[in-house]
Amino acid sequence: MQLQPVEKLSDVGMRIRQFRQDAGLSQEKLAELVGVTPQQIQKYETSKTRISTDKLQIIAAALKIHVADFFSDRSHLTLNAPETLFIKKLRKVRDPEVHESLGVLLDRLAR
């Protein structure tokens, strides 16, 4: 069995951009959270610069995702407009207790 590379660098860069946009963050804001310049974020997103695993972990934490999400095929995950709006509103809620309560409510509604 021949092993294939997990991802091309360009795929990871495109996913950084997509997750950043999904989170409603500018390159400037993500750069501030990560501790690099906006130009460096642009280089990551356009695959002009390799990303260390340490930096990738910091970027994932800033985007509130798992590092594995950069390497997962998300093509099967498409959201309709109401779902996208719901997620944008949910991300604006900063209180962890409210997040937990919403999770409990959704679990009950999904039964």
Automatic annotation (TrEMBL):
Keywords from the UniProt entry: DNA-binding
Residue stretches making up the HTH cro/C1-type domain: 16-70
Pfam family, one: HTH_3
InterPro entries the UniProt entry points to: Cro/C1-type_HTH (IPR001387), Lambda_DNA-bd_dom_sf (IPR010982), TransReg_Diox_bact_type (IPR050807)
SUPFAM superfamilies in UniProt: lambda repressor-like DNA-binding domains
GO terms of molecular function: DNA binding; DNA-binding transcription factor activity
PROSITE patterns the record matches: HTH_CROC1
Highest taxon above the source species: Bacteria
Cellular component terms (Gene Ontology): cytosol
Protein known as: Helix-turn-helix
Organism: Trichlorobacter thiogenes
